[in-house]
């Protein structure tokens, strides 16, 4: 059965020169050494616009014969989240307090070299790169001063260099739960190779021995991946928020799930990937949650980011992943993990262990 639901000082000169679309006042002191204009030769975020409808999704089960046991389509989806490994040597370690917290493309380093009071380039091989490493200026000794300085740099570079700025800070650490060296704008994380963490929750229903997944279709006005299929609930992990609390927050905002229900979500592990595209090096770890929902529950989006929801048989969702590009890329990994845990992918399937291992192709730490 298918169910439908549907305070810094202003710096106007830089705002005018670089045409920041939604300028935010910021401090003058860390950008004084920037000098020349920012190059427009930037790498934009992939925006996978999609024109498919729910009817196209429903056709998958009839247009594609059952390929249970063939894991090829799943491997392809995992590969699409782990591109560019051959270009890893183009990135220099980003080091803070003798810890590698990220990686910076040698081309993007040309941008950072304009900020002499923020970044320092050291040519050595101490951290495994023959081309040296990038660190922060020695005057930036506290997380607060680093956060302010990097924030000023991101706002100075603006949308033309770092698209999708949303004024949401991510903690910068060398590993999950470790020391937070500073916080960084979410959109900038891939440009500094910062490890980012998020939560993805699979909301499912059981009917007559069959499992169904609630799937969202992203709003067509979303700046990234508009109109693509997504989890019932997902979101980045902001600074200072525990995973469980973030699940509760995102459940309310994205699907109208009250705390009385969302607090029952079960942590079931994590998936990871490393994806290189242009100057961007995504090192993401996604904490996975399962939530068995009441049969009568119907999600209602609260923040305008989801266009509609459908309740789909897990077997259909598996075929959609296997045979289409309809899902936002990293959602594929989480759902494939769900298929393992709920017995839809079996040890008898050729490539079982290799596929299982590939769900954690990134640095899962």
Automatic annotation (TrEMBL):
Pfam family, any one: DUF4743
Record protein name field: NUDIX hydrolase 20, chloroplastic-like protein
Superkingdom of this protein's organism: Eukaryota
Organism of derivation: Tanacetum coccineum
Stored PROSITE patterns: NUDIX (PS51462)
CDD domains, per the entry: NUDIX_Tnr3_like
InterPro entries in the cross-refs: DUF4743 (IPR031804), NUDIX_hydrolase-like_dom_sf (IPR015797), NUDIX_hydrolase_dom (IPR000086)
Domain Nudix hydrolase: 196-337
Biological classification of the source: Eukaryota, Viridiplantae, Streptophyta, Embryophyta, Tracheophyta
